[in-house]
Design goal:
452 residues; alpha/beta; Metallo-beta-lactamase, Chain A; globular
Length: 452
């Protein structure tokens, strides 16, 4: 089927003006490219007198603090290969032994290069919350019933396979388009010292640290405060893009209000430098303001969505009802380069009320194939749906074209043609995205369809 479908894709692309992969990139795609170029430029940034942050080396950032007789590492990237690159960069600055490693949380992209740092033989203490868990670790993942589809959707979200870096794949959303994934997820070393409630105060190599629990994107999250240097490491509760309140790969509900409370806690410190778990550090008065704006954006989503829910609005209606106020949307670090307001609204509804939107019509809905057949019959036959699908593409109404294509794919008669149109629409919609993970998902899905 590969050759015929590829031929159809090409034929449809030539026939439908404006529906090809050569759709002129709009301002969203340009903005996404600018964000990636700015945030993920590969370099080591000096923050304060003794703190260095490796940006653009991996999916996340890794930090090094130089003490009297050793160094402390905060987060270790997603792979052995990336960690090797980070360590090589750090070793150009100092050769002091590694005394401690701190995990901000258990996501794979923050804990999977540790063996590279421990291999030097200095036997560092490894510190984390006691509830640290990596949900994408193979052992943990297989405890989840639908782990195969979760893996597949993770590949789509991050464009892990099949996308050409820097052209098709602009970025991972929170990391550069191209990273070293040698030993992906393989270098984790378990913590040797943990805490759960409140905070932990430690001094390593003459450097004082305060570690605070900060549930948000994950329940095992912590943030690191260096009181003498006035530097705060936020983990993944803050990054310079709208928060990923819902990950389209699939995730359990991330408690929005708890996340906002953790951000509020961070704003209580006299921060001079803010180091996110991804993206570049922020220095000066903007650092504290950014945390406050992040908190306010999440709380606004909660309050406005709940207000609409109490009016009886469904998720499809709420995404039009909830829009961030201008004083927040104009902030660069709240641009939707990763998460989006729409996905967050839907996630809040599902996380607080569940899947049922309240309309009894949807308690036992008509199955999709039967519904498609009934709509085709009402329209005057499948050919009419096919013609309307073609018109939608020629009119550049790609979302509507894709919805009609889904119906026709279920009805078989025009399945090949509808599949070709869906691929074309997916590529066109990808170029309209501001969210990098939205773009990645569209493009990977299109390649999966083309390969069938």
């Amino acid at each position: 089927m590969r050759a015929p479908l590829s031929f159809l894709v090409a034929a449809f692309s030539m026939f439908f003006i404006g529906a090809t992969t050569n759709v002129i990139a709009g301002e969203n795609l340009d903005a996404m490219k600018e964000h990636a170029a700015k945030m993920f430029k590969k370099e080591v940034l000096k923050v304060g007198d003794n703190v260095y942050v490796a940006v653009g080396h991996a999916a996340s950032v890794a930090s090094m603090i130089i003490g009297d007789d050793g160094v402390i590492i905060i987060d270790t990237t997603q792979s052995i290969g990336s960690a090797e690159g980070v360590l090589e960069s750090f070793r150009k600055i100092t050769d002091k032994p590694i005394k401690a490693i701190i995990y901000t949380h258990g996501h794979r992209d923050h804990i999977s290069g540790t063996s590279v740092f421990t291999a030097e033989g200095s036997n560092p203490e490894i510190i984390a919350r006691s509830n640290l868990i990596n949900p994408l670790d193979d052992k943990n993942l297989k405890k989840v019933g639908p782990y195969k589809i979760l893996q597949k959707r993770t590949i789509r979200q991050y464009g892990i396979k099949g996308l050409e870096p820097h052209t098709e794949k602009v970025s991972m959303g929170l990391g550069p388009a191209s990273i070293n994934n040698k030993g992906l997820g393989k270098g984790f070393v378990a913590p040797t010292r943990t805490f759960f409630d409140d905070n932990m105060e430690i001094t390593v190599s003459g450097v004082k640290f305060e570690l605070y629990k900060a549930p948000g994107e994950t329940n095992d999250q912590l943030f690191v405060w260096m009181p003498e240097e006035k530097i705060l490491f936020s983990g993944d509760n803050f990054y310079q893009t709208f928060p990923n309140l819902y990950a389209i790969r699939g995730t359990v509900y991330r408690d929005f209000s708890v996340w906002a409370d953790s951000l509020d806690h961070m704003t209580q410190f006299p921060i001079e430098h803010l180091v996110p778990g991804h993206t570049r550090p922020i220095s000066g008065p903007e650092a504290n303001q950014a945390l406050a704006d992040y908190r306010d954006a999440i709380r606004y989503i909660v309050e406005k969505t709940a207000e609409g829910m109490n009016k009886g609005l469904t998720p499809d209606e709420l995404v039009s009802y909830v829009t961030l106020p201008k004083n927040l949307t104009e902030k660069y670090y709240l641009n939707e380069f990763l998460g989006t307001v729409d996905w967050s609204v839907r996630a809040y509804f599902a996380g607080t009320l569940g899947w049922f939107d309240g309309n009894p019509t949807h308690l036992f809905p008509t199955v999709p194939r039967e519904k498609a057949q009934r709509l085709a019959n009402m329209a005057g036959g499948e050919k009419v749906l096919f013609e309307n699908m073609n018109k939608a593409v020629s009119d550049k109404e790609f979302q509507w074209a894709m919805e009609l294509a889904d119906m026709l794919m279920l009805l078989e008669k025009y399945k090949k043609e509808a599949t070709a149109v869906k691929i074309t629409a997916l590529k066109a919609l990808a170029d309209q995205q501001r969210s990098a993970i939205g773009r990645n998902y569209y493009l990977v899905y299109a390649k999966e369809l083309a390969a069938e």
